Amino acid sequence: MTLADFTTTADARPASLRDALGDRVLFAGDPGYDAARVPWNVAVDQRPYAVVRPETPEEVVEVVRAAAAAGLRVAPQSTGHAAAALADTDLANVVLVSLAGMRGVTVDPVTRTARVLGGSLWNDVIEATAPHGLTALHGSAGDVSVVGYTLSGGLSFYARAHGLAINTVQAVQVVIADGSLVRASADENAELFWAMRGGSGAFGVVVSLELDLLSYTDVFAGMMLWDASRAVEISHTWAEWTATAPESATTTLRVMNFPPLPELPPFLSGRSVVVIDGAILETDAVASALLAPLRALAPEMDTFTRIPAAGLLAVHMDPPGPTPAVTAHSMLMELPAEAVEAFVAAGATPGVFFAELRHLGGAIARRPEHAGAVASAEGAYLAHTVAMVPFPEAEAEADDAVRAGLAALERWKASNLMLNFIDGGADRDAGFGEAVERLRALKQRFDPHDVFASAHAL
Ligand SMILES: Cc1cc2nc3c(=O)[nH]c(=O)nc-3n(C[C@H](O)[C@H](O)[C@H](O)COP(=O)(O)OP(=O)(O)OC[C@H]3O[C@@H](n4cnc5c(N)ncnc54)[C@H](O)[C@@H]3O)c2cc1C
Question: Which fold has domain 105-215?
Answer without folding.
Answer: 3.30.465
